[in-house]
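Late entry, L-homoserine complex.
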Amino acid sequence: MQRKIILIGCGVVGQGFLEILVKKKELLDAKFGFEPLLVGVADMRMGSILVPEGMDIPKFLEHLKAHGTVHDFPAEGATIGLNSLDLIKEADADIMVEVTFTDIKTGEPATSHIKAAFEKGMCVATTNKGPITLHFKELCQLAQRKNALFRYEGVVMSGTPIFDLLEYCLAVNDIKEIKGILNGTTNFMLTKMEEENMSYPDALALAQKLGYAEADPTADVEGFDALAKVVILSNVVLGGSIKPSDAAERVGISGITLEDIRKAKEEGMRYKLVGSTRIEHGKIIASVKPVKLALSHPLAGVSGAVNALTFTTDLSGDITIQGPGAGKLETGFAIMIDVLNMHREM
Ligand code: HSE
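Prediction complete; structure with ligand written out below:
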């Protein structure tokens, strides 16, 4: 069945999603009866285009590679120049994919995009942490009122499944505590600093080049990104309603030097940026901070732009999942699985 899609934000993640649609076209159709029709794209830097008859996705990707622009993609019957909100209002689409840059302080412009899509009854898939960190309950209520589906698998651990795992495989369990490595950039940097003696600025520059870091990498290195994920897990999984400012602690890795890492290594230890949340006497206790772990600790072996999370459950004990925490195809896949699951549920 054909599903009309609009893409809001056409950076690394948006392009990763489109590449997967191209790469898996036959399989998506043959196995899941899913035929994507891309009817609009809006990007703050690259412009916008609305094409009711649908765009040729491989040609659009070639155009992006050659020109780095959206608005001048040659397509019959195209409307150009709409801002993202107007494009959402004008578009006749089943699904909006929202992958604009994350602003953890305001949640904008993504929150307004998501509300506008729900108002039209569109389903939404997003990897944007801002709206889920700050407005999760409100957005879920609006989606429900408008009978729209809402999925956000990629906001924590990118393409490594967390929310689907909890919703299906770990259902019925009480989750008591969640703890792990939640930021790919800092884990990548700490690994490079330890294994290759790479300087902090060089390791950060490489993480940016590889597309792991946030638009403003301060969010990664100062722990704000990991904290947003801890807040999301606290509210979505533990049923809390906390804000980032409610966290007990938020410390990043900017204070960790090559010398600290070397000394820790001599002691048989390794630094990791650890995020955790648990319920204590009915209250959520959330934090993010660098922790020196013994090399034998399971989290100490997690290297590169990889994340790992342990769920402490009442029925199944501790369940740990490890996998990619950032990256173009990895995060594009998170959108892919959300879109596919919505297609199956529609
Ligand atoms: N900047 C984030 C990270 C991207 O490095 O983990 C994925 O949320």
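The chain has a mean pLDDT of 97. Will revisit in the morning.
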